[in-house]
Amino acid sequence: MRPLNRTSHHRGLHRMRGFSFTMRKAHPTDVNQFMTLIALADPDHPDPYGEAREFVLTRHGAPLEGEGLLALVAVDETGKLVGALLAGIPKWVFTHVGIPTQFEIPLSRRVANVHGVAVHPEYRYKGVGRSLIRQAEEEFKAAGWRVMTLEHPAHLDDYYARLGYTNHNAIVVNLPSSLISVRIDDTRVSARSLHPRARLASVFGIPGPVINGLLPGTDMPENAWFDGRRLRS
Ligand SMILES: CC(C)(COP(=O)(O)OP(=O)(O)OC[C@H]1O[C@@H](n2cnc3c(N)ncnc32)[C@H](O)[C@@H]1OP(=O)(O)O)[C@@H](O)C(=O)NCCC(=O)NCCS
């Protein structure tokens, strides 16, 4: 039997608990509503998601190109924006000191990050947040990305776990040369594989999932363990 809470999809129309909405990429005319909504995902920031404003205004037609940004909106039947999502390449790919320069570009075509997702307070618990995240996953997956990550406060652990994400204080990435640990301030860092080659493995000695298979030569043996410096099997 079909679970009651499932969102039904029909020609791009999502219907859940009597509420219908569609999703699309943000248009330049959405910019103010988009910025107001997405700010809800980082309310303490002085200029939340400032980089999204110019993107929505000028490069809306070229998602996933250049800086790899994706700005999605959910729209109700009256045309009102009820949800927003911004995703792109995680900053740590270019700033983490442990990543050799030659791996930065290849990694940036493999790892995507949901920078923020927010739903208008009156439209929560209707499947809008989940649908936006699933849509972003589909877009990046179709364009060849292998893993989706996100940063979130600990109180949303259950929310993201139900969407198939791991919840930890850090994620570890297996690179051809080394393991790197990604930790972002006090937030949780979560991940979900989008590709059969990208596997999130738990490894003895490492307190979070290890992401394998993003770059050539980084598939890890099943029995791998960490000796404090490197992987052994
Ligand atoms: C987090 C947020 C995006 C969720 O959006 P939403 O549209 O209400 O969520 P959905 O309806 O898609 O929820 C999917 C499932 O998670 C559950 N869920 C929703 N919010 C939850 C929460 N805060 N904690 C735990 N579970 C939650 C829902 O009950 C639903 O489960 P169900 O299908 O069994 O009913 C929304 O609450 C929001 O905008 N919050 C403020 C901004 C924010 O914190 N963004 C995230 C920053 S990383």
What is the topology?
Layout: E1 8-10, E2 13-16, E3 19-25, H1 31-38, H2 50-58, E4 70-76, E5 81-88, H3 92-95, H4 101-108, E6 111-119, H5 128-142, E7 147-152, H6 157-162, E8 171-174, E9 179-182, E10 188-193, E11 199-201, E12 210-212, E13 225-226, E14 231-232
Parallel strand pairs: 6-7, 8-12
Antiparallel strand pairs: 1-2, 2-3, 3-4, 4-5, 5-6, 7-10, 8-9, 11-12, 13-14
The chain binds coenzyme A.
InterPro entries: Acyl_CoA_acyltransferase (IPR016181), GNAT_dom (IPR000182)
Pfam families: Acetyltransf_1
Protein name: N-acetyltransferase domain-containing protein
Molecular structure report:
This protein has six helices and 14 strands. It is globular, with a radius of gyration of 18 Å. It folds into two domains: 1-88 and 113-145, 3-Layer(aba) Sandwich (Aminopeptidase), CATH 3.40.630.30; 147-233, no CATH class. The strands form three sheets. It has an eight-stranded mixed sheet, with helices on both faces. Strands 9-8-12-11 form a four-stranded mixed sheet, with no helix packed on it. Helix content is 21%, strand content 29%. It has 233 residues and is an alpha+beta fold. Bound molecules: coenzyme A. Residues 5, 40-41, 116-119, 124-130, 152, 156, 158-159, 162 line the site of coenzyme A (COA). InterPro entries: Acyl_CoA_acyltransferase (IPR016181), GNAT_dom (IPR000182). This is N-acetyltransferase domain-containing protein. Pfam families: Acetyltransf_1. One of its GO terms (molecular function) is acyltransferase activity, transferring groups other than amino-acyl groups.
